[in-house]
Design a protein that fits this description.
Blueprint (H helix, E strand, L loop, with lengths): L17 H7 L11 H9 L8 H6 L6 E2 L11 H10 L8 H15 L6 E4 L1 H13 L5 E6 L4 H8 L3 E6 L9 H7 L4 E7 L11 H11 L5 E4 L9 H4 L2 H6 L3 E6 L12 E4 L2 H8 L8 H12 L1 H25 L3 E2 L5 E5 L4 H10 L2 E2 L10 E5 L3 H18 L2
Parallel strand pairs: 1-11, 3-4, 3-5, 5-6, 6-7
Antiparallel strand pairs: 2-8, 7-8, 9-10, 10-12
Length: 397
């Protein structure tokens, strides 16, 4: 590998300061720094644009505030940003060795052997592996509705039938009893997102554990825990202990939420090696060098984890208070988002917000008058508050 330097060489940018050059490269992020996501957010809130204005002229949506993606806007952290700058000079290489190191470090953090870890390009890819592997004609996959659809979409395209189980009402939680009853001789897989999306609800560790102990001996259970590490008591909530025991349980995690690395696309499964080896056959590409480097550094950055949890929790509380004030029903959430009623078809609400340069959540049938709002930066949430107040007032006339 080439010799590392403390900072990569900057391209020739005449008559500007080094700080301005770094801004133009999108290298400021996190505590006191600014990244491209923040730059676009500032555009949408009326501050000086930090992205190419000619690109904005061609693609005005670059300046919109995105409250639809469940991204974590409070990062990446300073430590991760400095790693990104330091390792940029090495990104001409394929990260084969570095990926193996990341796998070993994840395994150590999870308390499992390295062969119990499968890393992919985001949680979406590893969930896609499961959908491809288990999605076959004549088989069924049990899942709640509404929920995250990546796994089921892949499985359905390959001929599997999705046995949907309605969420409980009005709490909008997984109906574990009904899901257990839906398992039959045709069931290939059960999928549980905990905390779920779009609702943000979750079942207790005891409930999830009891479900897995009863169902996993019959069919594999996938626990999508991508939002779980946003909780302060994450270590008490996760079911990774069931994997250590050898049950057919697969746990999905992502660096997109707590770690604020959505753009780097790093996610992984924890599960039995015999299943992970089959999933590996569906891989189409390797990981990206800088994503691996940033994920490795972020694993160690526990101070940012605390900051991230606190910032998302505060933003969620503020949005909940606004919805309470306006009298809009919503579901108390454990994720980095809130699902709330609009009282109007979601497509109309989306159009209203888009006219105000805001992206909001997509439709989640059968809740066609509800919207999922991701927690953004404080200035982004103030824009949404103004727009929501205007919309709410328009509905009262």
């Amino acid at each position: 590998m080439p010799e590392k330097t403390s900072t990569p060489a900057l391209p020739h940018l005449p008559n500007i300061s080094r700080r301005t050059a770094l801004r133009s490269l999108g290298l400021f992020a996190g505590s006191g720094l600014l990244g491209l996501g923040t730059a676009r957010a500032q555009d949408a809130t009326g501050s000086t644009p930090l992205v190419d204005t000619s690109a904005q002229a061609r693609y005005p949506e670059l300046s919109f505030i995105n409250l639809a993606g469940n991204e974590n806007p409070f990062g990446p952290s300073r430590r991760v940003t400095m790693t990104l700058m330091r390792e940029a000079a090495n990104s001409s290489r394929y990260p084969f060795r570095e990926t193996n190191i990341l796998r070993d470090e994840i395994a150590a953090a999870e308390g499992v052997p390295p062969d119990h870890i499968l890393i992919g390009n985001g949680g979406d890819e590893v969930l896609g592996f499961l959908g491809v592997e288990y999605g076959k004609p004549g088989v069924e996959i049990v899942a709640t509705q509404p929920t995250y659809l990546q796994l089921m979409d892949h499985a359905e395209r390959r001929g599997a039938k999705i046995r949907w189980v309605a969420a409980t009402k009005p709490a909008m939680q997984h109906d574990l009893a009904a899901m257990k009853a839906a398992v039959n001789d045709h069931t290939a897989l059960v999928y549980i997102c905990n905390p779920d999306t779009p609702s943000g609800t979750m079942r207790t560790p005891a409930e999830i554990e009891a479900f897995c102990r009863e169902v996993a001996p019959r069919v594999p259970v996938v626990l999508d825990e991508v939002y779980l590490d946003l909780l302060d008591d994450f270590s008490e909530q996760t079911q990774v202990g069931l994997v250590r025991e050898g049950l057919s349980v697969l746990i999905c995690r992502s660096f997109s939420k707590l770690h604020a690395l959505a753009g780097h696309r790093i996610g992984y499964l924890i599960g039995p090696p015999s299943i992970l080896q089959r999933l590996e056959r569906h891989r189409l590409s390797g990981l990206n060098f800088l994503g691996v480097a940033c994920a490795r550094e972020s694993l160690r950055d526990t101070a940012f984890h605390l900051f991230s949890r606190r910032s998302i929790r505060d933003g969620r509380a503020a949005l909940g208070a606004l919805l309470d004030e306006l009298g809009l029903p919503y579901i108390p959430s454990f994720g980095n988002f809130i699902f709330h009623s609009t009282g109007t078809p979601i497509r109309e609400f989306q159009d209203y917000m888009r006219d105000r340069r805001l992206f909001v959540g997509r439709p989640f049938p059968p809740y066609d008058e509800w919207v999922r709002i991701s927690i953004g930066l404080p200035q982004e949430m103030r824009v949404y508050e103004r727009a929501l107040r205007e919309w709410h007032a328009s509905q009262q006339t």
